[in-house]
Every structure is written in C-alpha cells, then in structure tokens.
Amino acid sequence: MDSIETVSPHTRESSSKRKVIAIVGGGLVGSLNACFFAKRGFDVAVFESREDIRLAKVVRGRSINLALSHRGRQALKHVGMEDKIISKGIPMHARMIHNTNGKRSPIPYGKKGQYILSVDRANLNKELLTAADTFPNTTLNFNHKLHDWSPKTGAMTFIGPDGQMKELQADLIVGCDGAFSAVRKQFLRQSRFNYSQTYIPHGYMELTMPPKDGDFAMEPNYLHIWPRNTFMMIALPNLDRTFTCTLFMPFEDFEKIRSGDEVIRFFQKYFPDSIPLIGVEALKQDFFRLPAQAMVSVKCSPYHLFDKCVLMGDAAHAVVPFYGQGMNAGFEDCLVLNEIMDQLNENIAAVLQEYTRVRVPDDHAIADLAMYNYVEMRAHVNSKYFLFRKYLDNILHVIMPKTIVPLYTMVTFTRTRYHEAVNRWHWQDKVITQSLWLCGVVSAAGGMYVLVRNSHKLPNISAEHLWTRMLALKPF
Ligand SMILES: Cc1cc2nc3c(=O)[nH]c(=O)nc-3n(C[C@H](O)[C@H](O)[C@H](O)COP(=O)(O)OP(=O)(O)OC[C@H]3O[C@@H](n4cnc5c(N)ncnc54)[C@H](O)[C@@H]3O)c2cc1C
What we know:
The chain is α/β, with parallel strands linked by helices. It has 16 helices and 20 strands. The strands form four sheets. The protein has a seven-stranded mixed sheet. The chain has a six-stranded mixed sheet with strand order 9-3-2-13-20-19.
C-alpha cells in the first residue's frame, strides 16, 4: 500500500460524455443498483471488497436465505430479473407456529394466493452480479476495498487486489457497502448529519435441518416459528430440501449453554419437536461452530452529501431482520431513486435532495417496525387476543378491502409508503379497538335490558343461594 495510482473507472464501452457512477459494494443492493444505473445509460463501475462470489468456493455472509416480498419483486421486475429469481424461490403462504407440546398451527400471511418467497442469498447476489455484468457500460471490480473518499473532489481511495492504494474519480458515489459502511464515515464528519446505531441484546445462530427420506423434514411452504416469548427459532426452506433454522436469543442466554448436553437439554425444553429433525449429534456440533452474530439497527439522515454521494440499502438503514424487509427496503430504494430520476430529468443535485426527503421517513418507519415485529413474532403470537385480532383484521379486510388493510399486508404485499402504513395502522387499530369496546358495551347493556324486562319470568333464586351454588362448583 505504498503508492497511489490515479485512474478513471473506465468502462468497457467508455464514453467521456456519460456521467460515471461508482457503486461501492457489490452486495444485494449494490449489484441491483448497478443494473438500474446501467439501464439508464450511465457508465457504472462497481467496487466490491470481496472476491467475485461467482467464482468463490465458500461464500461467507449473513443469513443463508431471505424472505423476498412485493417491494423487492417490483424492483427486480424493473430490471427484468423477477421471473428468474422467483423461479428459484419457495413460496411461504403462512407462519407455522410450533408449540412446546408439539402442536402446530398456521397463521396465513394474507389473503389466499398471497405469499412471501424464501430465496438463497448467495444465488440472488450471483444472479444480480451476472445481470449487471451483461451491460456493456458496467464494470465489476472485485477485491477493491474503499479506504476513504473526499467530499470536496469526489476522489475515492481503494485498496486494490495487490494491496496497492488506487485513487479513482467518479461523478456520483453510491454507497451500498452495508451496515458498517466506509462511505458513510465521511458523512459522520459533516455538520447536521444525524446518526444513531443500536445493537439489540439478542444474537442469532443458524442451524441446518437436513432433508428426511429425501424430502423436506417439515411442511415446506411455511415460515416455521417456535415463539418462546423472550427468544424464538424460525426456519425457512431451501431448494435443496433443507431448512435453515435461525435461533434468535439474548447473548447472555447463548453464553449459558456451554456443552453439547446443555444444548440438547435446552432444545428438549423449548424446541423438542425439532431435535429429531435436526439430529442430536448435528445439534451438539453446529451450535458451537460459530458464535452467535450481533444485529444492529442504523438510522441516519440525510442520505446524500451535496451532489457527490448517496447512501442506499443497509449503508443508509440497517434494520433488524424481524419484518423480513431489510433487503426489500434496499431494493425499493433503487426503485424510488429511479422514479425520482424520471421525475427530475436526471438532475443529480435535485434528485439526491428529493431522494432524502422522500426516503428517510419511510426507512426510519421500517426500522421501527422491524424492532416492533420481534416482540410480535416471539411473544404476541402466543396470545389468544392477538390471534383473534389477526383473524378479525383479515375478515374486516375481506369485507372492506379499501378501508381496513392489515399492517403486514401493507408492508409486505403493497408499495404503500412505510410511514403511511404505520400511520394507517395506528388509525385502524384505534377504530377497531373502539368498535370492539362499543360492541361489548352494547351487548352488555342489551343483555341487562333483556334480563330486567323478563325478570318476572326468571325462577325466584336469591343472590345468597346463587353464591352458595357457585362455591360448590369451585374445584378446591
Ligand atoms: C439474519 C438476517 C436475516 C435477514 N433476513 C432478511 C429477509 O428475510 N428479508 C429481507 O428483506 N432482508 C433480510 N435481512 C436483511 C438483508 O440481509 C440486508 O438488508 C441486505 O443484505 C442489505 O443489502 P446491502 O447490499 O445494502 O448490504 P450487504 O448485503 O451488507 O452488502 C454490502 C456489500 O458491500 C461490500 N463492502 C463492505 N465494505 C466495503 C468497502 N469498504 N469497499 C467495498 N465494498 C465493501 C460487502 O462486501 C458487501 O458485499 C436479513 C439480515 C440478517 C442479518
């Protein structure tokens, strides 16, 4: 790293007239974004710190699979990738709740025919890189790690494959380098940049459930959940007929489990039905293969710096994974920026300003919702009232599809802006709760009225007599 080379990120079909867009990070959002910018005709250069995962033997990263839903699909559709990706996804129509007594009960995600898709993260990333690679005006630069960049000149310094520093210039830097973004570091040095980062006290660990007799060990078209109030396990199906089980639990509880026997005792107590499906020996080993991973939520604003740089995906808004929206929101970022490009005629300075204005409230709303949904997934689904309300909300949605739309439906199956979905949810909740109270009061008053009107027809039983009869029924 002793010399600095200054080069222009030339593309395969370089044209000095076209603006050069440097996308830092070739993960899910970066590679999709490359397709969006290339489709608009910009010269695009992607810089990714890892090697080319399409050639790598082992792909390291976060979750093995992810839930893809409407927002993500709409963005993929725009670059002609939706069909290819969904053909390798497994539909999940409902949550399948596993009780400690082995009982399972499904809770549908939405109306009949609505589902989310379990997709393989590595395959999705590979497909998107290949799609970006097919544009003649795009270059993919692997083993290029952004070291720093200058907000004054827009010059970026990378550590290249040979360990040498390289300086590169672009018209716009798009920071898609994830939750621990190096691009974002320069934003932190600017005045009036708001930033917050929260680690939740819970970590996650992935375990594999192998196929059973050549087929899925559990029903494949569900997202399986073992909600245990303060922690939970979930399982998503994979194309190879395995399930990836993810255990979310406070770090202090992970630390209490120190031996294979303790793992089995823990699973016998909380997830007994999963033991024969994962396998005793596999559980004992896999539990200690990797330490539990941390989860961080990042919020910041604004998302742009002058007309030089914009943050997108996890670099702008890392969210905890409990609404299955991190990637979906990141993909929607690309779609929203593209829509604003159309509206403002690719005037980059104006586009970036508008993008921050439109997108910040939505990404902040999904960050908060993701935090809320952890409690819903691990605890609320155990409550009878919650299940009743889910059921009622779904019935009301069928009767009045335009007036009552369940929150999950708005977030997962529509492109209703996230912050509008939250506002509407609060309003609906208030109306439904007040109506339930009203129904309760009216029924009680009606009952009293009928009793009083017909009191002469009732047998003459004294209150003392009734009390004695009731005590006799008490089981003590
Ligand atoms: C356990 C778990 C489960 C999840 N499940 C879901 C789900 O079901 N549905 C969903 O929508 N979302 C889910 N998410 C969220 C999702 O993983 C992220 O939102 C998504 O990966 C964000 O994509 P990204 O491209 O912005 O960031 P990343 O995927 O983190 O990609 C960033 C890329 O930038 C590269 N990079 C980093 N630093 C540099 C640098 N200095 N220079 C150059 N390159 C760099 C990295 O190597 C990486 O390739 C889940 C997350 C976790 C942790």
